[in-house]
Amino acid sequence: MMNASPAPRPADRRITGVLLAGGQGSRMGGIDKGLVELGGRPMAAHALERLAPQVDELIINANQNLEAWRAFGHPVFGDDIGGFAGPLAGLHAALMRAQHPLVATAPCDSPFLPADLVERLAAALHAADAQLAVAKTFDQPHPVFCLCRRDLAAHLGAFLAGGGRKIDRWYGTLKVVEVAFDDEEAAFRNINTRDELAAAAQDLPGGGA
Hints:
Elements: E1 15-21, E2 37-38, E3 41-42, H1 43-51, E4 57-62, H2 66-70, E5 76-77, H3 87-97, E6 102-107, H4 117-128, E7 132-137, E8 140-149, H5 153-161, H6 167-171, E9 176-180, H7 194-203
Parallel strand pairs: 1-4, 1-6, 4-5, 7-9
Antiparallel strand pairs: 2-3, 6-8, 7-8
């Protein structure tokens, strides 16, 4: 069961959550993946429901269908770099707009994301005095599930301005701590195709009914 609200955090440890929904959805036929229905609701609604209780502020990165995204009731913003430049562009835009010193990210196509994602990333980030904490299951890192410091905005902006787009390459320039979620591997499943969407519906309470 989800907690009703996060435990109070001191100001220097407060967290802005950002739902990354800025892609083109090419593997879903070019439609906005987060707006595709799963169990009678937009897929993003499931992700937002899980992420919201874990953070102090929630914002959405989207580059199309902005009115539909605004209907979720959170601030919506696009990439500052054109051309659907990938999740790093969304993260950079979030770092520029976040009200809090830490920023947690999750993608709109992961409706089962862990309810303790942010808590575990934050514990590891502070313990290691790292710049960025990233989730990992066994040998598989999940770079779009991360917690990083807002003051990386200028560093990431320079990386993007230089043509950088690969998320793992940027991570390689930082002090990063990987956080094991081997006990929650299924929670990181993302939905890219219609077949995966149908399978995910069966895993909802009531089988998506």
